[in-house]
């Protein structure tokens, strides 16, 4: 497996924390980063080398927006795919969560391990819980519990060959890294401005990657109204525009504005301001008052809504390794829903071969600039693509300097198959040279599923011969299982040799769940 010791990746070169006002903390964080850069290559070269990976799946993002996602705190379970790192015989894993993860779910993942007895892996796994499901980021909960931090340090032991893996790396995770004396495999929080909606537009333009017409660095709804009017003035035929919070995620911070009936000339600005109340929000239950307050807090952008009869939402995932080199990791077609079709629901891998090489090339253009700025680890770039006169036209819409909805299914595919991504063909091949495709979603839900226990779900999969089969490199893997009993929601990944086979398995599994729950 390539890069087993650090989620099939590496860490960036040493360096300071540009823009960090805390001198001593910045020096300590930079020293941790240099330590990882020195130690990681030897660990990655030797599968039997002792190492410890501390997983902090903290959703360190806007908590008000996160609270609108059904079963949001269970999203900490998406990184349980990293339990498959225990296939390395001397790797230890410490996994931290807000609430305890049921043992049945842990057993489910450990029994997916190829070539390692589940009991052997379980002895090298330590689960740590805050026993706290209240709103708030996991990292903040840990920092508020010094006794729990002390127990966590004791569980980690020697930190020389240990590192943290986080869903997102913010100032909270940096403080946690300093408290635990652990380097983080991920982007320095000082560089997170490149991952905001405004920062993304600036960086993508600088890299020569096409972006939709629009405006960034907007501070409030007055600026939004002015930008909307200017956008329509430049494009009189424009039907819709998108307003986005700078730190929104999964489309939940977006709102759609319609220009139907808009006047021309000087009356346009007044008309737009009067129509702001008609903004259509993607987040469930969002109001204009709450959105305006959030916009004043974090700012945002306005951009043209890309229309098209045949439209897709692909993304490319990239990585900057320990030597500072940029490499493509994967391409996906995102599955979107919500009122305006902008909320992330799932993904297909790989992206359509008609355009996967093109978005990979555009992603590498932007990624090269990010690598020069010091970004390291995994990140993704999302596009909107429209077919016009037989050719695909691509617009990049954002950079995500964190893990996302495409990260955990791709890691699961790597760990299950020991295969590799081929950048030349944008395909994934198993060691036997067979292609592997998947469909994955975090949003398979139904009120009828409520009350199903993890053991019930596994029983249904096994009895219906849907469970993943290593010999065939085909079948179904579940995640977000903990959300099932209360919320009737789970994650599902269907793996097949072709895209059609993966699609068929996905549909069959949902049909089976519907039938079994009546």
Structural features, described:
The protein is an alpha+beta fold and 518 residues long. It folds into 3 domains: 4-186, no CATH class; 213-304, no CATH class; 311-517, ATP-grasp fold, B domain (D-amino Acid Aminotransferase, Chain A, domain 1). It has 16 helices and 20 strands. Strands 10, 11, 12, 13, 14, 15, 18, 19 and 20 form a 9-stranded antiparallel beta sheet that branches. A 5-stranded antiparallel beta sheet has the order 5-9-6-7-8, with helices on both faces. A 4-stranded parallel beta sheet has the order 3-2-1-4. The longest helix has 23 residues, at 23-45.
Question: Total strand count, please?
Answer: 20
Q: What is the number of helical segments per DSSP (H or I, 4+ residues)?
A: 16
Averaging pLDDT over every residue, what do you get? 90
Output the CATH class name of the largest domain. Alpha Beta
Q: What percent of residues are in strands?
A: 15-25%
CATH H-level superfamily title of the largest domain: ATP-grasp fold, B domain
Helix content: 25-40%
CATH names the topology of the largest domain as: D-amino Acid Aminotransferase, Chain A, domain 1
Shape: globular
Characterize the main sheet.
9 strands, antiparallel
Radius of gyration: 23 Å
N-to-C span:
42 Å
**Which stretches are poorly predicted, pLDDT < 50 over at least 5 residues?**
1-5, 8-22
Helix/strand/pairing class, anyone?
Answer: alpha+beta
Indicate the multimeric state.
Answer: single chain
Q: In total, how many domains does the architecture comprise?
A: 3
CATH architecture of the largest domain: 2-Layer Sandwich
């Amino acid at each position: 497996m390539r890069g087993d010791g650090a989620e099939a990746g590496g860490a960036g070169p040493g360096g300071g924390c540009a823009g960090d006002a805390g001198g001593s903390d910045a020096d300590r964080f930079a020293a941790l980063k240099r330590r990882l850069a020195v130690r990681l290559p030897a660990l990655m070269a030797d599968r039997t080398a002792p190492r410890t990976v501390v997983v902090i799946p903290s959703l360190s993002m806007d908590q008000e927006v996160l609270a609108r996602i059904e079963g949001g705190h269970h999203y900490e379970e998406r990184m349980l795919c990293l339990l498959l790192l225990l296939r390395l015989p001397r790797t230890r894993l410490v996994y931290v969560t807000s609430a305890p993860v049921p043992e049945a779910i842990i057993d489910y993942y450990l029994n997916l391990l190829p070539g390692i007895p589940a009991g052997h892996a379980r002895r090298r796994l330590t689960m740590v819980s805050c026993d706290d499901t209240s709103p708030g980021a996991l990292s903040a909960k840990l920092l508020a519990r010094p006794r729990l931090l002390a127990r966590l340090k004791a569980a980690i032991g020697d930190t020389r060959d240990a590192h943290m893996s986080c869903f997102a790396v913010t100032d909270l995770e940096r403080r946690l890294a300093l408290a635990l004396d652990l380097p983080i495999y991920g982007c320095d929080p000082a560089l997170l401005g490149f991952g905001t909606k405004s920062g993304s537009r600036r960086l993508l333009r600088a890299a020569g990657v096409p972006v939709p017409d629009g405006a960034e660095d907007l501070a409030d709804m007055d600026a939004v109204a002015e930008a909307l009017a200017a956008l329509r003035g430049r494009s009189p035929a424009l039907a819709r525009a998108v307003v986005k919070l700078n730190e929104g995620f999964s489309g939940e911070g977006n709102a759609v504005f319609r220009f139907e009936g808009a006047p021309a000339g000087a009356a346009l600005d007044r008309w737009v301001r009067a129509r702001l109340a008609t903004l259509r929000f993607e987040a469930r239950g969002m109001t204009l008052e709450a959105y305006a307050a959030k916009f004043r807090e974090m700012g945002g952008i306005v951009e043209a809504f890309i229309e098209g009869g045949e439209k897709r939402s692909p993304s490319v995932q990239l990585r900057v390794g320990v030597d500072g080199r940029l490499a493509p990791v994967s391409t996906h077609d995102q599955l979107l829903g919500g009122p305006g079709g902008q909320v992330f629901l799932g993904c297909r891998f790989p992206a359509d071969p008609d355009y996967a090489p093109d978005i990979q090339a555009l992603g590498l253009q932007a990624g090269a600039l990010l690598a020069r700025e010091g970004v390291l680890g995994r990140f993704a770039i999302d596009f909107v693509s429209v077919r016009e006169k037989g050719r695909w036209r691509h617009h990049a819409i954002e950079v995500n300097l964190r893990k996302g909805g495409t990260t955990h299914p791709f890691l699961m595919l790597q760990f299950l198959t020991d295969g590799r991504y081929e950048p030349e063909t944008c395909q994934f091949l198993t060691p036997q040279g067979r292609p592997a495709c998947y469909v994955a979603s975090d949003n398979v839900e139904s009120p009828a599923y409520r009350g199903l226990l993890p053991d019930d779900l596994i029983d249904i999969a096994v009895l219906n011969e849907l469970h993943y089969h290593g010999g065939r490199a085909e079948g179904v893997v579940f995640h977000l299982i903990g959300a099932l009993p209360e919320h009737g929601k789970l994650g599902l990944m269907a793996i097949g040799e072709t895209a059609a086979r993966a699609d068929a398995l996905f549909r069959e599994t949902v049909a089976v769940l519907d039938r079994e729950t009546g």
